[in-house]
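Name: LysR family transcriptional regulator
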Amino acid sequence: MGYQIELRHFKYFLAVAEELHYRKAAEKLFISQPGLSRQIKQMEEILDTQLFVRSKKKVVLTKAGEYLKVELEFILNHLEVTTKQLKHIDGGEYGEVRIGFLGSAMQSVIPNLLVKLKDNFPKIKTSLEELSNGAQISAIVKDKLDLGFIRLSRVPEGLHMKTVQEDTFSVVLPESYPVLTRDFNSVAILKNEDFILFSQDYSPLYYETVMSICEDAGFTPKISHKSVHAHTIFKLVENNLGVAIVPTALQSGFHMRVKFIELINIPQRAVLSAVWKEDNRNKALFNCVEMLLRNT
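Structure predicted for LysR family transcriptional regulator:
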């Protein structure tokens, strides 16, 4: 057989693998469904491997198909990134660093990093995307992000993690809450209050740490609301719908009718770490990491 695998075969395969529906995949690719079916059949013949099991009711990937999907997502994403980096270099720039972050990193860590980059490597471009811990890790593993800012105790093998900030925690109370900062001596006085926390899925380490702060004070908090945004949490507190415990750095940049009481006399700290893939070959990333770790 004289056929050879071409880039179009991979794109067609990925469309079907993502949709698991030939008609929907064909519409996405702007080709006919019979034409797409022929291309997939041709690909399976060239590879001498079945990639899909197709019935009248559904389409599912074989084990080989599942493996190929993961590998092709990585390869095609890397091709896209390489092409983009070439354009930056051809334009006299030094590449791009794609950064993921939790909201608290935007208070000081990321702004300080961007200033350092601008002063030392003005031709490096950066892009920013606010994502959960898990989404950042997944994107870094798949080479869709270069650098992340996370609150996790560990990361998968092949990723490097470095602490860049240790912060205290602060209680967030409605402005009218009947306690003065000087009289606040323990989180235990909040044991009967409803608590508003960051979602456990969004930041499991933060969630577990806040639980431990309350448990050390002798109670398990009653959780009434969860959110992934500090602004939402503060708004709920402002409206007397509960109290919260957050990294102290988050109090900057918000102007609401809430008050913060820093919890100085507890061992727990809000640890923010930078994470990147050890075998990432983006040279701009390592200039970025150098700036980040300087004086940390």
